[in-house]
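Section 3.1: Structural characterization of target chains.
Under the original work plan, the team committed to producing a structural model for every single-chain target entering the pipeline before any wet-lab resources were allocated. The record below documents one such target. The sequence was received from the expression subgroup and is listed exactly as submitted; it comprises 99 residues.
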Amino acid sequence: MSLKVTIIIPCYNAEQWIEKCVISALNQTYENTEVILVDNESTDRSLEIVKKIQETRPELVVATAPNLYRYSWEEPVTKGLSLSAGDYITILGADDYIT
């Protein structure tokens, strides 16, 4: 049994980068990986873009968290951790990607 890796992506208004970010996380070669994106009440098309990806990649977990503190990752990361089943967890910025 291999250890599970969780990639949590907190997202707030990242429509410019979010597709590349999520696809890079989903395309990892390590097989026992889960990707959890938590939208933090984005006012752009970020959540719409991610839900479109989820239509063809149902292994992507999409959730939302309230945006209580401006520019804070606390709420989406906490939500992502509550959904995670990983033995190892990393956080990937919504404006970044994994090569």
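The mean pLDDT is 95.
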